[in-house]
Amino acid sequence: QLQLVESGGGLVQPGGSLRLSCAASGLPLDYYAIGWFRQAPGKEREGVLCISRSGGSTNYADSVKGRFTISRDNAKNTVYLQMNSLKPEDTAVYYCAAGGPFCTGWAKEYDYWGQGTQVTVSS
User: d(Cα 43, Cα 110) in Å, to the nearest integer?
Assistant: First the structure.
């Protein structure tokens, strides 16, 4: 059974940066594509970025292009979401999820989910 734990969220001012981590245990993370999703209050969960088993990334949210990047360190069994130039509209609970081996923006295609980490962008 794969278990995922997100960390790195918090309160940041507009224009700031955060790096979220998604640490896996139980199974090797490199078996899976890993997606980052987010859910703001009153909104549906949306796909943000995904990284495939081979390391290719796919962006599912136009609003984060050029600001967010995804990477993976298989040796550490961890996937990262680097978020730069943060905006108030990026405020949400961010989740990582494992499925695979290919990326998809559909949450239902992912088998394992973390508990989420809150990101709040506010002055």
Answer: 19
CA-only gyration radius of the chain, Å = 13
CA distances from 43 to 39, 65, 97 (A): 6, 20, 18
Cβ distance 111 to 98 under 8 Å? yes
pLDDT above 80 for 104: yes
The strand pair at 57-59 and 110-113 is best described as unpaired
Q: Which pLDDT band, with edges at 50, 70 and 90, does 81 fall under?
A: very high
Instruction: Give the CA-trace dihedral at 52, 53, 55, 57, to 10 degrees.
Output: 0
d(CA 1, CA 112): 9
One-letter amino acid for residue 88 of the chain = P
